[in-house]
Write a structure and sequence with these properties.
Layout (H helix, E strand, L loop, with lengths): L1 H15 L4 H4 L3 E6 L9 E2 L11 H19 L3 H4 L4 E6 L7 E3 L2 E5 L12 H12 L6 H6 L9 H13 L3 E3 L8 H4 E4 L10 H4 L3 H15 L5 H10 L2 H4 L5 H4 L23 H19 L3 H12 L6 E7 L7 E7 L3 H10 L2 H13 L3 H28 L25 E5 L2
Parallel strand pairs: 1-3, 3-5
Antiparallel strand pairs: 1-2, 4-5, 6-7, 8-9, 8-10
Helix pairs in contact: 5-7, 7-14, 7-15, 10-11, 14-17, 15-16
Bound molecules: zinc ion (ZN).
The site of zinc ion (ZN) has 4 residues, from helix 5 and helix 7.
């Protein structure tokens, strides 16, 4: 029995280990090809004996260089950021864009791809930011969890990491080299972008509509290539989800409230595009960096980690039940991403704090604060509901009996039994 267990352990560890040293030396755990004409389907090339397909070794070395640069920049071993190394998958994706998921990065290639590819470092670091905040067991996963999924955080942070580490203001997609430049570039972040703009700029469909218009332009000019047609065809899928808004609704001064859904919640992609929300925030950092002649991103990352700690969070006072006699009253802590900027400001000399404040106004970041205020309320309500579930399952309910106000009302909280959470500081 004991011998069998040891054998199973050895088998399991062999299955997890990358056979090909080119994979393991670059912290890549697997390289899978799927739905491609020139490569086997669902085969992990790190596990097959023999040489890697032509071009793959060069791509792995490119990724390895970026992994080492990232660990040096963040001061955290890559193995701790993405435990077990990163899985790479080459596949045509639903929409022609590379996509990150926990521990894995799918590089979108065309079905006829032959193995030639330059990894675009800005996209890869942007997507690594998503991966390291989504991979359970990773150092930054747990620490940044309070901010995860917020309109104000995910894409802003990913662009910040790419901008801070690489210093390149233009983000473009891996595999985009085959596309005409007009389709290749995602975002250009300069020092003068602000929230003082129209709602149209931040509306979630604006980017996709611009891409589709560009595609129509290529067709009518007769300059459409087969690669661009493949990309444009995938963008057509956006039309299925498109919810048109009148110009009178879109061409108005942007306010945080424009991003709220019909029941007053702020959910990424429902009304506003998180990628575009991140632009004025990063533009502010670039602008202030230039003005102060200092690298602010390094400091900002350490402040983001600080702000994610409960001690830097905001306190909300929650109460459940009739206002005058709550059944259960308790505080919850909610962490604020904006707090990272406050901490960054506090560390600057007083003269530079004035520059900070002026740049904050120039980029109209009061809108970021407003957007986050909705997110903090939602996070407080979610934490309050979680606490109530514990309360109604635990000894707290012993003081209540059938017939008492709000007795065992969860999850049907309503009427006089609603939960309310208000910020106290
Ligand atoms: Zn992203």
């Amino acid at each position: 029995m004991k011998l069998l267990c040891i054998c199973l352990l050895i088998l399991a560890s062999t299955a997890n280990a990358a056979v090909n040293p080119r994979c393991s030396s670059n912290a890549v755990s697997s390289v899978v090809t799927a739905r491609l004409l020139n490569f086997p389907h669902e085969v992990d090339h790190c596990q097959t004996l023999g040489a890697l397909p032509p071009g793959f070794g060069r791509i792995l070395d490119q990724l390895g260089v970026l992994h080492r640069r990232l660990e040096a920049y963040l001061g955290v071993p890559f193995e701790q950021l993405v435990p077990g190394g990163i899985g790479i998958r080459f596949s045509p994706t639903f929409v022609y864009e590379s996509t990150p998921s926990p521990g894995r990065f799918t590089i979108a290639v065309q079905p006829t791809w032959t193995g030639e590819l330059d990894v675009e470092d800005t996209e890869y670091i942007h997507d690594l930011a998503h991966i390291i905040t989504a991979t359970p067991g990773g150092t930054l996963y747990q620490r940044l969890l309070p901010f995860k999924g917020r309109l104000t955080f995910d894409e802003t942070f990913a662009d910040a990491l790419a901008l801070g580490m690489l210093g390149k203001p233009v983000l473009q997609g891996t595999g985009g080299g085959v596309l005409p430049p007009v389709l290749r570039f995602w975002r250009r972040i300069t020092t003068d972008q602000s929230f003082r703009d129209s709602f149209r700029t931040f509306y979630r469909f604006t980017y996709a509509l611009e891409m589709l218009k560009t595609c129509e332009g290529l067709w009518s000019a007769g300059s459409m290539t087969s690669e661009a047609a493949y990309y444009c065809h995938d963008f057509e899928l956006w039309r299925i989800f498109y919810q048109p808004l009148a110009a009178t609704e879109l061409d108005v001064e942007f306010r945080a409230e424009h991003c709220l859904n019909s029941v007053g919640n702020l959910i990424p992609y429902v009304k506003c595009d998180p990628h575009i929300i991140g632009i004025p925030v990063n533009s502010f950092v670039l602008d202030l960096q230039q003005e102060l002649g200092a690298d602010l991103y390094r400091g900002l990352f350490s402040k983001i980690l600080l702000a994610a700690e409960p001690r830097h969070g905001k306190t909300f006072s929650c109460a459940f039940g009739p206002t005058e006699r709550p059944v259960h009253a308790f505080p919850v802590r909610v962490q604020s991403f904006v707090r990272a900027f406050e901490l960054l400001r506090e560390e600057l000399p007083r003269s530079q704090q004035a520059n900070f404040d002026e740049a904050w106004k120039r980029h109209e970041l009061s809108i970021l604060v407003k957007l986050e205020s909705y997110e903090l309320k939602q996070a407080a309500a979610a934490a309050g509901t979680a606490e109530l579930r514990v309360f109604f399952q635990g000894p707290g309910t012993a003081t209540l009996k059938p017939g008492d106000a709000c007795w065992n009302q969860l999850p049907r909280a309503g009427g006089g039994c609603a939960l309310s959470c208000l910020e106290t500081e």
